[in-house]
Amino acid sequence: MADLYTVNKSPFEKNSLEAVIRFSTEGAAILMLEDGVYGATKGTVVESMITGAENKKFYALGSDLKARGIAEDRVIDGVELVDYAGFVDLVEANEKVQAWL
Amino acid sequence: MSEVKNFMYLNRRAPYGTIYAWESLEVVLIGAAFDQKVSLMFVDDGVYQLVKGSDTSTSDMKNFMPTYRTLGDYGVRHMYVDQASLAARGLTADDLIQVEWEDWETEEEIDNIVEVVDADSVAKLMSESDVVFSF
Amino acid sequence: MPIEVDGKSLETDEEGYLANINEWVPGVAGVMAKEDELELTDEHWDIINFLREYYEEYQIAPAVRVLTKAVGKKMGKDKGNSKYLYGLFPYGPGKQACRYAGLPKPTGCV
Fold first, then answer.
1. In chain C, which residue's Cα lies nearest the Cα of B64?
2. Which of A17, A56, B105, C28 has the smallest count of CB within 10 Å of its CB?
């Protein structure tokens, strides 16, 4: 079992997402929420952080994407959208939660 | 009365994660009562403030993104957006809201006061302003 | 202090604005007007309905001068002036009409 990592900061303002990808273990689940969801969008200069990451599974909180006007078709392929219930499932399915701010 | 000055509000933060965007918007709304020449500049994550289609029905947050569309009624004459900041985020002008402006006396109308500009223009517009408020 | 509308108790803030805009029903305006000893006419309702539409679209209560201009544009210049609006809402079109409409106090209104 691996850990669930949450990232709530914009990848353009802080390097939290980049650091999490670098320091998380194999099989890690990485959930982007709040301003962190901007990292899950296609066509950005930081997109390759996610598309190039190996052995990590990425998630984004759907309601935070919606609040920011980001349609589902703008989300990077392979990033799974979850709702609050899905968030809880992720917490349960992983050993512990690490919140990267 | 003091002379009319050029006020520039510089917005560099994403809309919901921090309070900056909302604070800036509130100051602009309140400041509208003072009849100054007001322009808004959106750079870096600030460009996310103008992305259209926001829906907070599934979040426990006040949706203030629709409020930007009424800024023309509050005396805001220009809303500039940095082209490079948009491009870095995979966005284009088509992803942004449109804001109408109308002079109520002369009935002069402008369909959209949101304007994408290059970095040189950003620098020039900022330096030409009398006062810059940064958020 | 909560107000009683159609048999339901609705929470308000210390200035009498509805705590939750989603709880608004037309009866709210009626109850508030009665407290102010004001008779609501169609002209009042035009403004109240206008404010609710404005809020729906922009998510804020408009400043008085924005309201005045917008009313003038939509309903004609004879209504888009502060004399007309204050005639309808003596406590101020921004404050009083927004309160009746269930909106928060206009931003920048003290």
1. C59
2. B105
Identify the CATH number of the domain defined by range B6-134.
3.40.1260.10
**Do chain A and C touch: 3 or more Cβ pairs under 8 angstroms?**
no
Predicted structure pTM score: 0.91
The CATH code for residues A4-100 is 3.40.1260.10
* Chains in contact with C, counting 3 or more C-beta pairs less than 8 Å apart as contact: B
DSSP state of A19: H
Contact B14, A41 (CB under 8 A): no
Tokens of A71: 């349609």
pLDDT tens for each residue of B80-104: 999 999 999 999 999 999 999 988 7
Q: Are B15 and B25 in contact, with CB atoms under 8 Å apart? A: no
A45 and B88: CB-CB below 8 Å? yes
Q: Where along chain A do its domains lie?
A: 4-100
Does ipTM exceed 0.85? yes
Residue B30: its chain C contacts at CB < 8 A? 107-108
Chain A interface mutation, best of B43, B44, B48, B49, highest count of A Cβ atoms under 10 Å: B48
